[in-house]
Write a structure and sequence with these properties.
Elements: E1 10-11, H1 15-25, E2 34-36, H2 40-46, H3 52-61, E3 66-71, E4 86-90, H4 95-104, E5 108-109, H5 124-131, E6 151-156, E7 159-164, H6 170-177, E8 205-207, E9 222-226, E10 238-241, H7 248-263, E11 269-272, H8 281-291
Parallel strand pairs: 2-4, 3-6, 8-11, 9-10, 9-11
Antiparallel strand pairs: 1-5, 2-5, 3-4, 6-7
Length: 295
């Protein structure tokens, strides 16, 4: 476990071990991995040329759910970075992850511990259900405290780009930087989570456009992923409330776990309410849009 979700780890310098990650997840080899470190000395093992603004963010947010994309050292295998000249790195804030990396004495490449494109696991039993025949060991550290993947950024041409919203709010990064983050006009795969379809439950997921279920679903078994209150406006067979108080951090922590619970109920469809696109709500909506059938 990290503080975000559970990761499937391998020695970042061992191409054979890294290949086993792609094999277990059925992950395309052009999707780069995040390399996890336990101290600042390890950063120098995998990356070079750290821009001043990135260094400032590292000092402020590490350990924590911030991933930075940097020029890679030659020693990092091409498979780890999907052939890119850059490497995505972060220092997780979880005692189990930090201890494992420290004892291994090597940076650990680790995507989320789930079949590719499916819901990210926030509990050990979810890892077991998805990958039980493909991995040898699960370190059970209990539920992950943040529950949504890291924020990914990259410096380019003097600007800092947001490649993926995540466990650190964009507003908090911009406050430290003193300027706005940029976004690609045309997204490209230079970090994990860049695919237009991702994070999907097995049950078809739809984002609610209003207060009514679309026609054709009235006789179906329906689940609702509500934001802050019971969805009394719709007759449903099951529901989960992300945060009764409307707290976006609590909603993010519960997001994948509640989707996972609804996905296990044999429903015909799951409908999710939109959440405010601020703070961690931006990351939640990013996952919902990529997981849904109607976005």
């Amino acid at each position: 476990p990290t503080e975000t979700v559970y990761g499937l780890g391998a020695n970042a310098f061992d191409s054979k071990a890294v290949a086993s990650i792609f094999e277990a997840k059925k992950r395309p080899k052009f999707d780069p991995l995040i390399v996890h470190i336990s101290n600042y000395q390890m950063l120098g093992m995998v990356a070079k040329g750290i821009p001043k603004e990135i260094e400032k963010l590292i000092q402020f947010f590490w350990p924590g759910p911030l991933t930075v994309v940097l020029p890679k050292k030659e020693e990092v295998p091409a498979l780890t970075t999907a052939g890119l000249p850059t490497v995505a790195v972060r220092m997780p804030q979880h005692p189990v992850a930090l201890r494992l990396i420290s004892l291994s004495d090597t940076p650990i490449a680790a995507p989320s511990a789930n079949p590719f494109g499916k819901l990210s696991p926030t509990r050990a039993e979810q890892v077991y259900k998805g990958l039980k025949d493909k991995i040898e060991l699960i370190l059970d550290g209990g539920p992950t405290p943040i529950g949504i993947e890291s924020t990914i950024i990259k410096e380019e041409g003097g600007e800092i780009y947001l490649l993926r919203p995540g466990g650190i709010a964009v507003e908090d990064i911009e406050k430290v930087l003193g300027k706005k983050l940029k976004q690609r006009e045309i997204p490209k795969i230079e970090a994990p989570g860049s695919f237009p379809s991702h994070y999907s439950p097995t049950t078809p997921l739809y984002i609610l456009k209003g207060k009514e279920i679309p026609k054709g679903f009235s006789r179906k078994k329906i689940g609702i992923l509500a934001f802050s209150s019971k969805p009394d406006y719709i007759k449903c067979d099951a529901f989960r409330i992300l945060s009764p108080s409307g707290d976006l951090k609590e909603a993010a922590k519960n997001f994948f776990n509640f989707l996972y619970e609804l996905d296990c109920l044999g429903l015909d469809a799951i409908f999710a309410e939109k959440v405010p696109q601020k703070g961690l709500g931006l990351a939640i909506m990013d996952r919902l849009k990529k997981a849904s059938q109607n976005e």
